[in-house]
Amino acid sequence: MIPRFLTLPDALVYAILRLVAPPCETASVACHRLALLSRSCHSSVTDENGVFWDFVLGEYSGDAASRAAEDRVPAPVPSPRRCKRLRRSAREAVREAHLRLCERSDAAHLALTEMTHRRERPLTLARLRALFPRGSGAAAELRVNQRARVGGTLLIECCRARFVEERAVLSCVRFLVTDKAADVNVATGAGPLPGGAGGLTPLCIAAARGMATVVGFLVSSGADPSLAGQGRFRLFGSTHASVHGKFTPRGWVRAMAEAEAAAGVPPSDLAGLLECARVLDSAAIRAAA
User: Fold this and answer.
1) Residue 13 resides in a domain
2) Does residue 272 lie in a domain region?
3) pTM for the full model?
4) Structural domain range at position 69
5) For the residues of 37-93, what is the DSSP string, one character each?
6) Is-contact 149 197, C-beta < 8 A?
7) Does 1 map to a domain?
8) Which pLDDT band, with edges at 50, 70 and 90, does 63 fall under?
9) Which of 105, 107, 156, 159 would staple 152 via disulfide (CB 3.0–4.6 Å)?
10) Alpha-carbon span 79 to 91, nearest angstrom
């Protein structure tokens, strides 16, 4: 359905936006949601001369109708000179707001990364909530599915969190997916394929770390168990050894369990990995039914 939506004429796309977004928020929907869907939609948003912006910015000043009207009437008497800030077009204002949103999202991701790797101030749901700006509207948004410069999303960083119990990770993951509409299938941008594709998905990370409750929630939220990801995970039984490769979530569970057993970890300490395997096998059976 999404590819068909992206092939619709710009006028029809704008009409749909007017239905799904309140007035003056269609540009936000286009920039922060639709532009993430495909390259064609992203290019239509970033194209300075594209007709898409003439429709999206119709409720702002400087839209296509007003420019057409100016072409039909004599040029008005030049108005007094105004500063550059007041001469900005609506398109420029939206672009600047979009860049500020991306900067806020990068700053939030950096703060979360420091939180997930520090024993002194570990990840909690309250601290994760505090990263999101207060208020309502576009000023209180973050691009939760935006990959930071290090390659991960907010959801991926939560799944990577160290020095924290599994239940805290689960509460943070549930908050991002349920309250902030985080995409459970967005992988890291550090994969082996062109453009960084083929990185680790949140489900791969949670499975390799043996977090069965997180795996179960991600699967129930639409995470695809067939998506393979390439990465490296240290062993619990030997901090100097690791497992490296490209596996599906079920493959990561099997590879980690075999490596941990070879490192001398007793079966009683592999309960998390074994439960992850059971959850993933159950999901595969339901999908095949």
Assistant:
1) yes
2) no
3) 0.71
4) 1-75
5) T-HHHHHHHH-TT-HHHHHHTTTSTT-HHHHHHHHHSPPPPPPPP--TTTT--HHHH
6) no
7) yes
8) very low
9) 156
10) 22
